[in-house]
TrEMBL record:
Pfam families: NTP_transf_4 (PF13562). This is Glucose-1-phosphate thymidylyltransferase. Coiled coil: none annotated. Keywords: Acyltransferase, Transferase. The keyword rRNA-binding does not apply. The keyword Transferase applies. One of its GO terms (molecular function) is acyltransferase activity. The lineage of its organism: Bacteria, Pseudomonadati, Gemmatimonadota, Gemmatimonadia, Gemmatimonadales.
Length: 403
């Protein structure tokens, strides 16, 4: 059994921490939860994060822990990303010089973990932790900064785990480069598609489609039932049930997100159920070629990254022709349709120009319900009630600028 723990730093990974635990973020080819399940060979039973996420429920994600973490459970820091390998032995795992996961000898009350301040090292009596290969996420932008390396590591290991054979170089698509292309049974690779695996491998999952006249540049992961079409898709991790049209570079789509039209998106993250209108374009490089600054809950900070686009929260919507400057943050549930929004847009904002009004909660819920129904997902009564609470929390969050 695995329980996922968001420490205080993970709870500041906005705009995503408003609506989801870090275990349900995509890091490399997999959700953080999926990665640890493979490494530990165990199922997930729950998560511990900020109290506003107590009602989080999504597909096969485990629920919040409400009482205590049972003895015998693995307790995992969600900012730790182990390399996919066979399950390690031992009761404490180190990545670098920090404890990333512990197997609990005794139950741990929820109160010990609730504020995110507990170091997992304090919860183990193991004197010889086992070192495992991996990395830590220090900031939300590390998901992008480490993406290329993470995909290059993940894809061949996942192919081995899932017993996928590399596509022959003589297959119908045009292939450049020396790395492998893995195509799961049930995927569709149309003729006249191009795979450039000069810089890394490609993995296309079951039910996914790579349409003709698409150039897929590795390392790249295309998730279950997703479609990529008619442009260059490079060094990206595309989750399940996504639509990608137009140029996409070094970006993450958590899942069920739509970039259905032309427009460049680079070094960006699209939350679940995000939708980009036709012609939405992100800038990912400043005219000065200097490091990108980004809004965070502790103020605008220098990321040290030369390339960084936009972080779109869950259910964020961008109108047609939107132009986003380098290092933008669009809060969860925001629906904006002006020419160029400010660099930080608060959750559940609405409008065609700043200062924005509030996206009315019933209108937001109706929009979310209609979008989800198009992917055969129901926004049930419990989910509607939880999103109503999140809406109230989001519009009251004074950390965000209100332009």
């Amino acid at each position: 059994m695995i329980v996922f723990y968001d420490d205080a730093q993970a709870r500041r990974f906005e705009p995503f921490a408003t609506t989801r635990p870090l275990s349900e973020m995509r890091a490399g080819a997999l959700l953080v939860r999926e990665r640890w399940q493979l490494v530990l060979g165990a199922s997930s039973t729950g998560f511990v994060s900020a109290s506003h996420l107590d009602g989080f429920a999504e597909f096969d994600a485990p629920p919040v822990i409400t009482d205590e973490v049972p003895a015998g459970s693995w307790l995992v820091n969600t900012r730790a990303l182990p390399v996919i390998h066979t399950a390690p032995t031992g009761d404490a795992l180190l990545i670098g010089d920090r404890v990333a996961a512990v197997r609990l000898a005794a139950p741990v009350p929820l109160s010990v973990l609730r504020d995110g301040q507990t170091d997992l090292a304090s919860l183990t009596t193991c004197t010889t932790p086992v070192a495992v290969e991996g990395r830590w996420l220090a900031e939300v932008w590390d998901l992008i900064g480490s993406l290329v390396d993470q995909l290059g590591s993940d894809i061949p290991r996942l192919a081995q785990r899932w017993s996928l054979e590399a596509l022959p170089q003589t297959a119908a698509p045009v292939v450049f480069g020396q790395h492998a292309i893995y195509v799961e049974s049930g995927a569709t690779i149309e003729p006249l598609s191009v795979f450039d695996v000069s810089a890394g491998p490609v993995l296309v999952r079951r039910g996914a489609t790579v349409q003709a006249f698409t150039r897929v540049v590795g390392p790249c992961y295309v998730g279950v039932d997703s479609t990529v079409t008619t442009d260059r898709v490079a060094a990206s991790s595309i989750g399940d049930v996504c639509r990608v049209h137009g140029e996409l570079s070094t970006s993450i789509l958590i899942g069920h997100a739509n970039k259905g039209h032309d427009g460049f998106v680079g070094h960006s993250i699209l939350g679940r159920w995000a939708n980009l209108g036709a012609g939405t374009i992100t800038s990912n490089l400043k005219n000065t070629y200097g490091p990108v600054a980004l809004w965070t809950p502790s103020g605008v900070r220098d990321t040290g990254m030369q390339f960084l686009g936009t972080l779109f929260g869950d259910h964020a919507k961008a109108g047609i022709g939107l132009r986003l400057t380098t290092g933008c943050v669009i809060g969860a549930g925001a629906n904006v349709f002006d020419a160029m929004p400010p660099k930080a847009v608060a959750p559940f904002s609405w409008g065609g120009g700043a200062p924005y009004t509030t996206f009315a909660v019933e209108k937001f819920l109706d929009t979310a319900s209609r979008m989800m129904a198009r992917r055969h997902v129901d926004l049930g009564a419990d989910a509607r009630a939880w999103w109503q609470q999140l809406h109230a929390t989001g519009i009251a969050d004074q950390r965000w600028p209100r332009s």
